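pls design
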C-alpha cells in the first residue's frame, strides 16, 4: 500500500479556507493518512484557561472555553455555506453535537481544576488535547461535505503511551498493533483523519506527547504503517537556514539528513518537534517539510544520507544569555574544580549552551534564569564568580571541521570591529558558537548569515 502520512499544523487548520486547502491536498494522494493539530491558538488558550481556573477565576476560564466553541462553530458554518451539500443538516448536527460534548467535558475539567485549586499534569493533558479532539472530528465531517470519504479516528485508539503526562513516551509495540485498524479503513476506500499530539495511558486517561507533539504523532503512525513518506505541511517552505522572521535572506534547505535535522530542531529550528524523526529514521522513511500555501515549492527533504559536503547547515541565535565565569581558588584547582562547577549546574538543572575552560577558570554561556542567584551562592565555594548579562548566542550548526578556519574568518569579517565575548567549537556536535552583546545580536546574526549562506 502506497501510504503517505500527511500532517497539518495549527496555521493549516486556521479557518474554513485553509480547511478546504487541506482537503484539496489530501485528495491528490492514493492512500493518505491525515494527522491534524488543533486550530491555530486553541492549545495555548486551553492551557491558559486551565491555569486561570486553577488560580481561582473559573468564570474567566469558562469564557475562554466558550470562545473556543464559537470559533469552531464559525469555521464549520462558513465551510458548509461555501460548500453546499445535500447532507449539510446531518453533518452540521453531528458536528454541533460533538462540539457540545467536548466543550461540556472542558467545562467539567475546568470546574474540577478550579475546585482542586491546582492543575495536575494529568488534568492539563486532558484539557490541552481537546483542541485536537475537536479539529480532527470537524475536519473529517467537512471532508464528507466536499464528497471526500474522510473518517475520524480518535487518536487514543492508536497512540498508546505510558503515564508520563505532558511528555508521554509512546508504546511502539502497541501502536504498531493498533495501526492495523488504519489500514482497514484505507482498504475500504476511506481517508482516516486523526488528531495529533494526544494519546492514551494504560489506565485509559489522556496523555500528550509534549509541545508541538503532532509531528511526533505523524511520525509514529508513519513508522507503524511503513509509510512511503511522512509529510509535514506547514506555513513555510521547509526547514530554513535561519529564522526568516529575523533573517531576511534565510532560505529553505533542500535536503537534510535525519541527524542534522534532529540537531537543528534541538537548536531552535521551530519547524520540527525534536523527537519527530526517530520513528521515521528507524524505518528509513523520508520526511518532507512542505508549505501548504505554496504546495509546488520543493520544501525540505529529510533522508538518511544527505550531502555532507557543504560547510555549514544553518544558523540559530538566542537572546537573554548570561556569561558566567568562575575562577578557581588555588585550593580547588585541578579536576575537582570543573566537576564541582558542573555539579552545581546540574543541581539547578541549568543547561549549558557553550563552555570555554582553562585549568583555573571556566566561562559558560547559559540562558538567563531565576536560579542564577542560588547557583552563584553554591559556586562561591569553589571560586570567584562573575556574571555578564544581556548577552546573545549565535550558533552555526553542522560545521565541517575542515572548513572551520574559513567559517570563523567569515564570522569575524561579518562582525567587523564588534566584540565577541566567547567563541567555542564542539567537534562532536559540529557547532561553532559566538557570544555577543544582546543589543547587537540580530544585526550580527544578519551579517553573519549573509556572509556565509
Ligand atoms: N497543538 C499542539 C501544540 O500546539 C500540538 C501541535 O500542534 O503539534 O503544541
Ligand atoms: Mg509545528
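designed seq:
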Amino acid at each position: 500500500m502506497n501510504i503517505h502520512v500527511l500532517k497539518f499544523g495549527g496555521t493549516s487548520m486556521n479557518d474554513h479556507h485553509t480547511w478546504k486547502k487541506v482537503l484539496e491536498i489530501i485528495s491528490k494522494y492514493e492512500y493518505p493518512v491525515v494527522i491534524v493539530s488543533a486550530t491555530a491558538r486553541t492549545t495555548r488558550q486551553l492551557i491558559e484557561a486551565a491555569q486561570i481556573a486553577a488560580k481561582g477565576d473559573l468564570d474567566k476560564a469558562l469564557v475562554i472555553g466558550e470562545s473556543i466553541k464559537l470559533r469552531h462553530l464559525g469555521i464549520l458554518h462558513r465551510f458548509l455555506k461555501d460548500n453546499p451539500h445535500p447532507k449539510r443538516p446531518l453533518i452540521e448536527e453531528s458536528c454541533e453535537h460533538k462540539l457540545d460534548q467536548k466543550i461540556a467535558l472542558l467545562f467539567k475539567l475546568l470546574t474540577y481544576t478550579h475546585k482542586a485549586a491546582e492543575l495536575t499534569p494529568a488534568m492539563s493533558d486532558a484539557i490541552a488535547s481537546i483542541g485536537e479532539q475537536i479539529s480532527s472530528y470537524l475536519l473529517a465531517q467537512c471532508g464528507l461535505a466536499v464528497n471526500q470519504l474522510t473518517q475520524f479516528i480518535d487518536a487514543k485508539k492508536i497512540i498508546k503511551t505510558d503515564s508520563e503526562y505532558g511528555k508521554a513516551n509512546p508504546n511502539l509495540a502497541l501502536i504498531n498493533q493498533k495501526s492495523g485498524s488504519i489500514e482497514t479503513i484505507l482498504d475500504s476506500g476511506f481517508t482516516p483523519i486523526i488528531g495529533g499530539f494526544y494519546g492514551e495511558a494504560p489506565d485509559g486517561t489522556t496523555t500528550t506527547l509534549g509541545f508541538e507533539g503532532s509531528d511526533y504523532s505523524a511520525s509514529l503512525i508513519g513508522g507503524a504503517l511503513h509509510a512511503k513518506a511522512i509529510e509535514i505541511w506547514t506555513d513555510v517552505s521547509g526547514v530554513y537556514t535561519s529564522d526568516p522572521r529575523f533573517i531576511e535572506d534565510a532560505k529553505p534547505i533542500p535536503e537534510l539528513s535525519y541527524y542534522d535535522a534532529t540537531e537543528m530542531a534541538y537548536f531552535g529550528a521551530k519547524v520540527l518537534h525534536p523527537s519527530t524523526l526517530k520513528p521515521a529514521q528507524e524505518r528509513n522513511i523520508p520526511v518532507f517539510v512542505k508549505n501548504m500555501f505554496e504546495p509546488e515549492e520543493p520544501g525540505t527533504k529529510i533522508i538518511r544520507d544527505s550531502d555532507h559536503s557543504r560547510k555549514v547547515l544553518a544558523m540559530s541565535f538566542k537572546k537573554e544569555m548570561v556569561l558566567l565565569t568562575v575562577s578557581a581558588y588555588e585550593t580547588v584547582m585541578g579536576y575537582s574544580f570543573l566537576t564541582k562547577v558542573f555539579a552545581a549546574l546540574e543541581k539547578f538543572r541549568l543547561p549549558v549552551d557553550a563552555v570555554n575552560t582553562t585549568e583555573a577558570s571556566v566561562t559558560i554561556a547559559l540562558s538567563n534564569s531565576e536560579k542564577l542567584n542560588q547557583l552563584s551562592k553554591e559556586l562561591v565555594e569553589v571560586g570567584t564568580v562573575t556574571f555578564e548579562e544581556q548577552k546573545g548566542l549565535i550558533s552555526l550548526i553542522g560545521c565541517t571541521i575542515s572548513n572551520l578556519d574559513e567559517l570563523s574568518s567569515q564570522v569575524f569579517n561579518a562582525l567587523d570591529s564588534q566584540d565577541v565575548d566567547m567563541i567555542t567549537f564542539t567537534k562532536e556536535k559540529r557547532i561553532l558558537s559566538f557570544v555577543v552583546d544582546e543589543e547587537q545580536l540580530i544585526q550580527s546574526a544578519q551579517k553573519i548569515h549573509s556572509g556565509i549562506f
